[in-house]
Amino acid sequence: MATAAAPRVYKNFINGEWVDSRSGNAYENRNPANADELIGMFVSSNAEDVDLAVDAAKLAYQKWRLVPAPKRAEILFRAAELLVQHKEQFSKDMTSEMGKVLAETRGDVQEAIDMTYYMAGEGRRLFGQTTPSELPDKFAMSVRQSIGTCGLITPWNFPMAIPSWKIMPALISGNTVVLKPAEDTPLSSYNLVQILTDAGVPEGVVNLVSGNGPNAGAPLAEHLDVPVVSFTGSTAVGRLIAEACAPEFKHCSLEMGGKNIIIVMEDANLDLAVDGAIWGGFGTTGQRCTAASRIAVHKSVYHDFISRFVARVKKLRVGDGLDPGIDMGPCINEQQLKTVMDYVQIGQTEGAKLLTGGHCLTEGPYAKGWFHEPTVFGDCNPKMRVAQEEIFGPVVSLIPIGRLEEAVEVANGVPYGLSASIYTRNVNRAFQAIRDLFTGIVYVNAPTIGAETHLPFGGTKKTGNGHREAAIAAIDFYTEWKTLYIDYSDKLQRAQIDNAE
Ligand code: ADP
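Above: inputs. Below: predicted complex with adenosine-5'-diphosphate.
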């Protein structure tokens, strides 16, 4: 009788070796489109594992920080080349563990490639400033210095891109890292760490501990030998991370929720706006922190927009993201699906008009996954919970608006401030919106999603805590400034005093 092969067990990566967890436990990683498909077992790490990983990273830091940045860059460049070679396989792995369609997981791996090349380029820059001193025979400049071991805690919706957003700037700056990936998508982090190792990252410089938030994430954030913590995830957990970092005044970067908006003015190209709303609202099954979960439409085109938008939503094909005919995959897990279903209920109770969708999908090809129909609520009041709270699923709330000032007030009237977009052909209005939208990212005539790696990424209010990822902004987070004054006058020169006359 044939027996099923034992599932592969994926281990932690500590000090250059794949090792078991001290807990002796492992958990299942299953395909959200088909719960019968077991992708693998991943070890459930605990505080002891985190200690080992941090010890390795701390030791490795002493050498890595002294490797010239252009040499560190060569390793990253090789990693980018290897990622290019493995892009297709890693994309398929990612769709299997995360659910989003293959075109999007290819984009996710591509983002990791872009970030890795970009940060490799930074190896020959890492610019500081040189500037004249106010005193004669004195030289002034600033240089960046590395900090130490970085604890990186990442979510499941961009399983390779987000780890790369944190790992690459940390490494090029001369830091070492311990990564705790999301429980739902550890394989993509495993793939990324394997590539970095193959590219020649020395042992201990990159470490990975898999497991859940309280057992593996919390000890990492709290660890006294981890002076830098970067987190992407929910606002509730972000607050815990901030609290864990506060007593030690750690560098702490938080990227959290969003309640992003597309504003459609009466002079917009409506077909373009509908394209953007479909992509922004239902790309990644709405599970992006930049998802367009609110669409504010000018009253004079509201009904026209609704009929075009809803017709398109009805045509979206839901299913397994590996199938090329599919537009939208499942929710990540049962809990997320339940959250979506709860919000659909809340929206109806609040009096929002259900225009399409509203049900989870359980029959036939959907029986073994966490699928939900793409759902649109119309006639929403901007204060309704479905128009205020992050749902992180395929639910879009339409809000009729009048003047641009009203639209901006609605846009800014939520606790978050990540991304906003306006569709208009009036350049004055576009610039007014750019000025008045209080978000970290603004798009004109494009949806709320689509960040590029060489521009800062992050948001205001409860979306973040003032830091930005990607671009040079990331280097600012992973380094400390050191300001240098070199006096070659051979005498005491007192700043602000001896240059007074
Ligand atoms: P999501 O809703 O995207 O799952 P979470 O904020 O729950 O967002 O999780 C994001 C990351 O934070 C995951 O890697 C998760 O394991 C981790 N995490 C969850 N709880 C904690 C915690 N108490 N301390 C540290 N990390 C945590």
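The chain has 14 helices and 24 strands.
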